[in-house]
Give the backbone structure.
Amino acid sequence: MNTGRYHLTLVADGRPMLHGWWTDEAVARGKFSAWVGRHGDRPGAHITLTDEEANSVLTQWPDHP
């Protein structure tokens, strides 16, 4: 369910694990940082923050896919 413009996803070992939507970019970026700290050590973790309205990736971890 889309409840905001900013979409955060966590994929680990090619499987979707978590996702969330926020209306405020600053809050979404804070969640991104928290997810990297909390879930970045999962095998094959990839965390992406996208702006769904602009259809663009704002940041991702790790820096390269």
Summary: The mean pLDDT is 94. The first helix runs from residue 25 to 39. Residues 6-60 form one domain. Residues 31 and 65 are 20 Å apart (CA to CA).
